[in-house]
Amino acid sequence: MPKRRNPAGTYELAGRQVNRMGYGAMQLAGPGVFGPPKDRAQAVAVLREALALGVDHIDTSDFYGPHVTNQIIREALHPYAQNLTIVTKVGAVRDDKGAWLPALEPADIERAVHDNLRNLGLEALDVVNLRIMGDVHKPAEGPVERQVEALAALRERGLVRHVGLSNATATQIAAARRVMPIVCVQG
């Protein structure tokens, strides 16, 4: 099937050309991004339709649900199209009431990468964004070097291909870039 024309154009993400319009999978989980969706079959159908309409990159995280969103992505799309880029996040967890909690120790980051790998059904993650949790709702200054070094080690082991940042300040972006290349930054 010919690729749909994309009037918004493309940009480079992690060494690939992707359409400017991607799909943010956060709302595939239940209310408040917690628990399962009301209609799982509809969530699967939404993902399949997004790709049919030309979406070639998905933003997700295993802390959405938790685990629910990545499991739905796997159910809907695995085995993944070669041109699909999945960008996931680490750096937070959810408690049993749904609160967002920082999970920024190197062991937390490694555990989150393995959770994402397992629930997405992948051997390596295309892009992992470090969600900096100094403030849940907006960027706040604080060190990021230990976390980025943990991701660099996971990249060296072949579990992560590229690293980005989420909820970062300009100072944190500069500090992370001193440790390793950063391929994207999201708000």
UniProtKB/TrEMBL annotation:
Keywords: Oxidoreductase
Pfam family, one: Aldo_ket_red
Protein name per the record: Aldo/keto reductase family protein
CDD domains tied to this protein: AKR_AKR13B1 (cd19088)
Coiled-coil annotated residue ranges, if any: none
GO cellular component terms attached to this protein's record: cytoplasm
NCBIfam families named in the record: PRK10376.1
Residue ranges annotated for the NADP-dependent oxidoreductase domain, each copy included: 20-186
PANTHER family hit by this protein: AFLATOXIN B1 ALDEHYDE REDUCTASE, ALDO-KETO REDUCTASE YAKC [NADP(+)]
One function term, GO molecular function aspect: oxidoreductase activity
